[in-house]
């Protein structure tokens, strides 16, 4: 018997005495909590996102859609990146001006190969203003989860205001729980018992977020 079968067996036994006409879970649990804290305009929501992203030590940039290719090229050049990992559904014009070797998102890529990549550029599924969190769901412009965990430098493009919500409950309403969700609040970091902060332990050391209007 596999671990999966054992777990499902325990769930079935736990539910054995639940009547078939019992109240469905989505109605049994009241969800009358606040959907967001306060009322904000779309512009105020984007400003709050930028503020909280910066508070988590992400580097935030703002630009118009037509300025994005040049901005991405500048960010890559300033970092000295010679290779960039590109998800298959990333809009080609985003990186048209980037002077770096394109590395495809391949299922067979090893952690060692991904570690040699200088930068990765992705889109996102949704961004949460109140928590300064970006959520990836493995969509075509985001690629496999590991491509945003192994390389040391991640540039994430957020379309505003369309991809920005105020709160976590609003974000959950947009996300499919069956997809591989990665929640990112700033660059990867941890602290030891002396509270010495170390970045880049289990994810990118540098997170740059581009808010594209």
UniProtKB/TrEMBL annotation:
Residues 47-212 form the LUD domain. This is Lactate utilization protein B/C. SUPFAM superfamilies: NagB/RpiA/CoA transferase-like. Gene3D superfamilies: NagB/RpiA/CoA transferase-like (3.40.50.10420). It holds the Pfam family LUD_dom. It comes from Streptomyces cyaneogriseus subsp. noncyanogenus. InterPro entries: FTHF_cligase-like_sf (IPR024185), LUD_dom (IPR003741), NagB/RpiA_transferase-like (IPR037171).
